[in-house]
Amino acid sequence: MMFHVQFPGLGLQLEIDRIAFSIGSFHVYWYGIIIALGFILAVIYAMKSAPKFGLDPDKLMNCIIVGIICGIVGARAYYVIFYPGDMYLKDPSKIFGIHDGGLAIYGGVIGGLLGGCITAKVCKQKISSVLDIASLGFLIGQGIGRWGNFINQEAFGIQTTLPWGMVSENTGNVPVHPCFFYESMWCLLGFVLLHFYSRKLRRYDGQIFLLYLLWYGVERFFVEGLRTDSLLIPGLPLRVSQVLAGVLVIFSAVVLIILHNRTVLSGSGSPRVMALNSVVDDVPADLVEDEPAQQPDSAEDTEEPTKEIKRQ
């Protein structure tokens, strides 16, 4: 299907074909290509960054593979479960038609995290570190993947008079909020900020994950309120993703406050905290020598001795 997309306030007009190319009667859709590109870039980043987080790249790859599979299943299951009506009950074969869209980000995150964390436990990788690096990967994947919604002309918002209002056949030929763009830019900005935070300011394993929940949750709560295709909680006039975003924002904010003095780190982060944990990653020698020794900040921290990680 061809879409005629316009941004009247910006003077832009585009023609978008959902099909990238065809081999006989088999069609390859841009939606799938874009989602795959987001996954690939996220994986490349995670593999190159693994040593910085004190993780074994080979074992992390096991977590990624299982996480991707569980993420796709979770994203589709979330969408199908909360989809209004009985379309999937009448024709279960449509459950597998993901090329038409219908992948819920929160379902993907939940499924990916569960699969990845279980695999991390089996592979004896520190789960909190895996969560940190996975969060950065999610931001890459979400930032790029949302452009698949643009190609499918879905996940847009209510009517708007703003200059960047988007018009197409799917919007009823009226300008609407390009919600895909809001989320894409927010996620890519979040990736940049949290990437540098993880290298220079991170104080404990798991902190990046909590900041991701807070960062993404704030955006999703407000942007979800603009959308016209939100999935609702059965029997209630509440948007599933908006409620979940609000809960995660509150949860992550409370935990970040509780753990604000935590200094248990097994990879890159604040040079002073790295020195406290004997983590070697281009930490200035004088900082290691001058920093007074400190005891772990909780009994839980004594269960797992810190490791010296040498970078090549």
Q: Summary?
A:
It contains ten helices and four strands, in the order ββββαααααααααα. With 312 residues, it is mostly helical.
Task: Supply the key terms.
two-stranded antiparallel sheet, disordered C terminus, mainly alpha, globular, 53% helix, two-stranded antiparallel ribbon, 312 residues, single chain
Describe the protein in words:
The chain is mainly alpha-helical and 312 residues long. The protein has a domain at 28-141 and 179-223 and 237-262. Helix content is 53%, strand content 7%. The protein contains ten helices and four strands, in the order ββββαααααααααα. The protein has helices spanning 30-49, 57-82, 87-90, 105-122, 127-152, 179-200, 207-224, 240-258, 271-276, 285-290; strands at 2-7, 12-17, 19-23, 26-29. The chain is globular and about 60 Å long. Mean pLDDT is 88; it is low at 282-294 and 298-312.
